[in-house]
Write a structure and sequence with these properties.
This protein is mostly helical. Helix content is 73%, strand content 0%. The chain has one domain. Helix 6 runs antiparallel to helix 12.
Length: 315
C-alpha cells in the first residue's frame, strides 16, 4: 500500500459514469507505480545532498496546495468545526512521523525493502482495531499474518541466507536494522493515523481530510526546518530534480486517486495498490542499481500475496 495522507473514502464524486473494469485496473496499477516512483525520486534527492526534512516539507506543502486547488475547483466547503480541525491536526502529527520515518528508511536501505516493511501497516491496523474493541480480524487475516511476516523475513534476507553478507545474521542486521526499524515505525504511525481517521473524521470529505492532515505535516516540517536550521538543500541539479520529481509524482498520484476513485466501481483498490513495492523492485533496479537476490524477490511475492489475500477476503 501507499504512504497516503489519509483515508480516501467519502470523496465527492466527480462523475457518476463508471469506467470499464480493465481500464480501472490499468489506471490503479499506474497510480501505484507513480506512488512508488516518488520514493525512488526521494532516494535520488538524498544521494545528492538533500535531507529528510527538506523532502517532507516540499512533498507535504506541494500536496496540500494541489488538494486545495482540487477542493476549490469542485466547490467543496472548507469550513470545519474547531474540534474537527484539532482532530485533523492530531492525525497530521501522526502522518508527520510516518513521513519522516519512511523517507529516513528509504535513505538507509533499498527502497523496495523499505516499502515492503511499511506495507505491514494493514496488519498493525487490524491488531490495533482489535485491541481497541473494534472488529476482530477474520480467520483468513490471522492465517495470513505469519505468512506475510515469513515472506518479509525472506525479502529482507534477515538471516543473510542469500550469501550476499558473509557475516550472516549479525552483519545483515547491522546493515539494514536502522532502516527496518524506521520503516516499521512509519507503518505503526500510518496505522494509528488511519485508526483515528475512521473514528474522528469518517464524515469529513476525503479531500478535505487530506488537505488538513497534509497541511499539518507541511507546517510542522517547515517550522522544524527553519527553527532548527535543519534544512539541507540538494547540492546539484540532479538532487533538485529528485526533489521536484518526488513532489510532482506524489501530487499527481494523490489527485488522480481523488478523481478516479468514484468511478472505479468493483475494482479492488486496496489489493491493486499493493503493486507499489513490486513496481519499485524494478524501478530501483533500473534507476538506482539496487538489485535484490532471487530469494528476496520470492519473499516480496509472498508478502504481497498475503496482503492481497487479506484485502480481498470477506469482512
Amino acid at each position: 500500500m501507499i504512504a497516503r495522507p489519509s483515508s480516501l473514502q467519502n470523496a465527492a464524486p466527480v462523475t457518476s459514469k463508471p469506467i470499464p473494469r480493465w481500464l480501472g485496473v490499468v489506471l490503479m496499477l499506474g497510480i501505484a507505480t507513480t506512488f512508488g516512483s516518488n520514493h525512488v525520486a526521494a532516494r535520488i534527492a538524498f544521494d545528492h545532498g538533500a535531507n529528510v526534512t527538506t523532502a517532507v516539507a516540499f512533498r507535504s506543502v506541494g500536496t496540500a496546495l494541489a488538494v486545495l486547488a482540487l477542493l476549490l475547483a469542485n466547490g467543496v466547503p472548507l469550513k470545519l468545526s474547531a474540534a474537527t480541525r484539532g482532530r485533523a491536526m492530531v492525525i497530521g502529527c501522526a502522518l508527520a512521523v510516518q513521513s519522516v520515518c519512511i523517507y529516513s528508511a528509504v535513505a538507509r536501505i533499498p527502497v523496495a525493502l523499505a516499502l515492503l516493511v511499511f506495507n505491514t501497516f494493514p496488519l498493525i491496523l487490524s491488531l490495533l482495531s482489535w485491541a481497541a474493541g473494534a472488529e476482530r480480524p477474520t480467520r483468513r487475516m490471522l492465517a495470513m499474518m505469519p505468512v506475510a511476516l515469513a515472506g518479509l523475513a525472506l525479502a529482507l534476507d534477515a538471516g543473510g541466507w542469500s550469501g550476499r553478507n558473509a557475516a550472516g545474521f549479525a552483519g545483515r542486521w547491522a546493515e539494514i536494522g536502522a532502516g527496518v526499524v524506521l520503516a516499521l515505525g512509519a507503518a505503526m504511525a500510518f496505522a494509528a493515523a488511519l485508526f483515528l481517521t475512521t473514528r474522528w473524521l469518517a464524515d469529513v470529505d476525503g479531500r478535505m481530510r487530506s488537505f488538513m492532515t497534509m497541511g499539518t505535516v507541511g507546517v510542522l516540517a517547515v517550522v522544524a526546518g527553519f527553527s532548527t536550521g535543519s534544512f539541507v538543500l540538494p547540492r546539484d541539479a540532479t538532487g533538485w530534480m529528485g526533489i521536484a520529481a518526488l513532489t510532482v509524482l506524489y501530487c499527481i498520484s494523490i489527485t488522480s486517486l481523488f478523481v478516479l476513485l468514484p468511478r472505479l466501481g468493483a475494482v479492488n483498490n486496496a489489493a491493486l495498490m499493493n503493486f507499489e513495492p513490486i513496481a519499485v523492485l524494478f524501478l530501483a533496479w533500473a534507476i538506482l542499481d539496487q538489485a535484490v537476490a532471487p530469494l528476496q524477490i520470492a519473499g516480496a511475492a509472498v508478502v504481497i500475496g498475503a496482503i492481497v489475500a487479506m484485502a480481498t477476503g470477506k469482512r
